[in-house]
Structure formats: C-alpha cells, structure tokens
Amino acid sequence: MNYLELKKWEDTHSSIWREIVSRFGQSDYDDEVKRTKHMATLKAEWDAKKYQRDRATEYPAIADQLDDIYHNGVDEWKKTIKAVKDKYPKE
C-alpha cells in the first residue's frame, strides 16, 4: 500500500517507513530529527491528496460506470462523475 492511500494517517504504518527509506535512505529514517522532518513532509502530501481519497470512495464501481455509459450515454455518465468532483473539489 502506498502511504497516500492510507484512510487514516498513522505514523507507524509500514508504508511511511518504506517511503522515507526509498526517498531518503535508512540512515535518515534512523535519525529521529530527519525522520520527523520527512514525516511532516509526507503528512503534508497526504493531506493535500484528501480530495482524491474522498472521491475514490464516492465514485461508482467501474462495472457500474460502464453500465451507466451503455444505458445512458457518456453525457449522463459525465454528470455522475462531475457531481463527485464538485462535492470534493481539488484544492
């Protein structure tokens, strides 16, 4: 799991460790000051993507979207998607 996909922020989640180690190296993770700084950076990135997580739970399943397109056309499908995008706008 990518840390951006976390439903709830948890400093101890393994994806946080993986992200810090992959970007900055194990030595930065082991250094408490650097780790804290990097975790703040990751948390800010995670916060900035909230609209994406909210949208993902609101969008209909792909199969339902395809069914909607088949039965109602692309224009009606776009209305469904736009309603979700309007509800959770990109900051």
Walk me through this protein's architecture.
It is a single chain. The protein has 91 residues and is mainly alpha-helical. It starts with 13 loop residues before the first helix and ends with a helix. The radius of gyration is 18 Å and the shape is elongated. The longest helix has 17 residues, at 32-48. It has helices at 14-24, 26-30, 32-48, 50-58, 62-72, 74-87. The mean pLDDT is 95. The protein is built from six helices and no strands. Helix 5 packs across helix 6.
Secondary structure layout plus pairing:
Layout: H1 14-24, H2 26-30, H3 32-48, H4 50-58, H5 62-72, H6 74-87
Helix pairs in contact: 5-6
What's the helix count? 6
- Measured between the Cα atoms of the first and last residue, the distance is 24 Å
Structural class, by secondary structure, is mainly alpha
Helix content: over 70%
Nearest-integer average pLDDT? 95
Rounded Rg: 18 Å
Name the beta content range. under 5%
Give the biggest beta sheet. Answer: none
- Counted beta strands: 0
Order of helices and strands: HHHHHH
> Which spans have pLDDT < 50 for at least 5 consecutive residues?
none
Shape: elongated
